[in-house]
Amino acid sequence: MRLSQYFLPTLRETPSEAQIISHRLMLRAGMIRQSASGIYTWLPLGLRVLKKIEQIVREEQDRAGAIEMLMPTIQSADLWRESGRYDDYGLEMLRIKDRHDRDLLYGPTNEELITDIFRSSLKSYKDLPINLYHIQWKFRDEIRPRFGVMRGREFLMKDAYSFDIDVNGARHSYHQMFVAYLRTFSRLGLRAIPMAADAGPIGGDMSHEFVILADTGESQVFCHKDLVDMDPPGDDVDYNADLSGLIDERIKLYAATDDKHDQATFEAEVPEDRRLSARGIEVGHIFYFGTKYSKSMGATVTGPDGASITVEMGSYGIGVSRLVAAIIEASHDESGIIWPESVAPFMIGLINLKPGDAGSDRSCADLYQRFQNAGIDVLYDDTAERAGAKFSTMDLIGLPWQIIIGPRGLKKGVVEIKHRATGEREELSPDAAVNKFAAPGE
Ligand SMILES: Nc1ncnc2c1ncn2[C@@H]1O[C@H](COP(=O)(O)OP(=O)(O)O)[C@@H](O)[C@H]1O
Ligand SMILES: [Mg+2]
Description:
alpha+beta; Rossmann fold; nine-stranded mixed beta sheet; five-stranded mixed beta sheet; 14 helices; globular; binds magnesium ion
């Protein structure tokens, strides 16, 4: 993409309404624009990151055996009356009436809708287990939307729903999502710690929030420091095998959100020098809730002996749009964002120091073309801005690599490469620069 032809409305000044760094940087980098309180437009640069995150989430859900579909944002109130939540959900639910005076709502979550789909299509124990997910916008009329997309009213969530014939099956489905989450967040460049969370009326140990440590986090969390350094399960993880070993290794170490925290247990179980008490951002939440919806809505299957079984369910959320902000909270410096390569909007920022200089123009155009041929996303700053401004913009938007080309370097036969995260620079011939990112021959 040529910057001269792109839509990147960056801001020089720090917007005064933004209280946390990720919100400030997202506005300054031209990633989002507020359209109403807690409701945002995703501008081109922000959308690229959102889509990259969404794709990683999708790949890891698929790998774990979940099946993607897409449910609508607008739902019928009648389903929610069946579960009893139409009245219980309260003011966070955005209620709508259509022209026939029928009650609709903008979905804050999808347990009712998915249970309805399940009960109308799946009838036998042989259809189970099954885990269905979608990545769809939600609306919650939050009393205090704040921190940009971190706590919005409209936000993008991946929500999966598992159906099993018994508690053991449900536990396995839960474990599959647990492992998928560890892998997902790690691919996003994050260390997310699974923490025991409030399990609601069902109780038990099958509710975990996945939390990123950050000073600006909204929750207070407590955990064993060893959890911070644990590597995620590798590519070879077998989702059909018993995963409880992988899970136990982690949940045996103390980790709890504020609601679940017990100071005495924390002190008894964790040596003083391994105790971590910090602020955290909830990026995912997995939850087993048994027959809460299947019972009230009549989601049953026929068992092997012909008897009717009320299915056991769990739900598994990831805050996709929140993750954009969470990654920035975890990865930035005083000059701007530092994107992990896996979610970067472009891999390389190509800076032409002297547009109009024939040699610089030619060399930039050549590299730009070759990277495009190799399938590498490049943002090419071909504008007439002065060099200093180009450098600040590139640092601000945080692309992992910068390639800087000007007459002085070209005279020596080199271009400069800067690594955004470390600030390290090297000079390479244009060919070597291409080969550094694209396998030779491509
Ligand atoms: N208002 C919001 N803005 C952005 N992301 C949200 C918001 N509410 C929830 N999320 C994300 O969706 C995930 C699943 O939501 P859920 O656990 O149902 O929400 P909550 O914990 O707020 O009740 C959360 O872990 C979080 O990452
Ligand atoms: Mg939650």
